[in-house]
Design a protein that fits this description.
Blueprint (H helix, E strand, L loop, with lengths): L1 E5 L9 H7 L10 H17 L3 E7 L1 H9 L9 H7 L3 E8 L2 H12 L3 H32 L7 E6 L11 H8 L7 E2 L5 E2 L3 E10 L19 H9 L3
Antiparallel strand pairs: 1-2, 2-3, 3-7, 4-7, 5-6
Helix pairs in contact: 2-6, 5-6
The structure holds iron/sulfur cluster.
């Protein structure tokens, strides 16, 4: 199965709480009037200029192990080493908000509209995560329709550049998935173009397979420890 998923921009409008949280404004705290106006303007620009789209492709464990090995630059031990072996179903994915939004951010910054440009950058990053959530949910639905999901199934995504998976892993991921078909290309630096794109693997399996300690050597440099929230989200009712 390989599928391109057309997504309505109205389905990926990011939550203002998440956008403000990323800027250090805690939930429940009212932003200043200036921030509020900037956020509203940036949201309007996001709705006008983003073109969300995703691609997913199912992949077997042996095939993924080749992709994951990448250029041989991963950390010696990583969470995915163990998780993949216990997975039931895997799919590579790539998602993007499209090129026009990035161009709009660049245009604002070049015109010295830093506040609005920066706010639009935050909104776009949050929107990109929403699109990846939709791709993840789509894979879950596909598996569910085929009876390959049980109440104890947990589904999470993992991306090159994080948690010991070297960013150069993008090369093999792109060779397998071919996200060029939805307008995403890979730069020499292994960054994606458009910049607000996300790629990786979606892993479905027993919820417990996603549990690991955040005690790998590279975890000491991690600013977010976001794996804790992601694991916890699997067990929320
Ligand atoms: S602590 Fe950070 S680097 Fe370590 S596994 Fe969690 S998210 Fe990844």
């Amino acid at each position: 199965m390989r599928e391109i998923i057309e997504i309505s921009v109205n389905d990926v409008k990011p939550d203002s709480v998440d956008i403000l949280k990323a800027q250090g404004i805690s939930p429940g705290k009212k932003p200043s009037l200036k921030v509020d106006i900037l956020l509203k303007s940036a949201m309007e620009l996001f709705l006008e200029f983003s073109h969300p789209i995703a691609i997913i492709s199912e992949i077997s464990i042996p095939e993924f192990e080749v992709v994951y090995c990448g250029e041989g630059l991963n950390e010696r031990e990583t969470p995915l080493d163990g998780i993949v072996k216990k997975a039931d179903n895997l799919a590579l994915f790539a998602t993007t908000v499209g090129d026009e939004l990035g161009q709009k951010i660049d245009e604002l910054l070049k015109k010295n509209e830093f506040a609005l440009g920066t706010m639009l950058d935050f909104v776009s990053s949050a929107g990109a995560e929403e699109i990846a959530d939709i791709a993840e949910g789509h894979f879950y639905e596909l598996l569910s329709k085929k009876g390959r999901i049980s109440p104890s199934t947990g589904i999470l995504r993992y991306c090159p550049g994080y948690c010991g998976w070297h960013v150069s892993g993008q090369k093999k991921l792109f060779e397998f998935l071919r996200p060029e078909d939805i307008g995403i290309t890979l730069l020499y630096s292994f960054l994606m173009k458009p910049l607000k794109s996300i790629s990786g693997v979606i892993i479905a399996g027993e919820k417990d397979i996603h549990i690991f300690e955040d005690s790998y050597p590279f975890c000491s440099k991690c600013k977010t420890h976001s794996c804790r929230d992601r694991i916890n989200s699997l067990f929320k009712e």
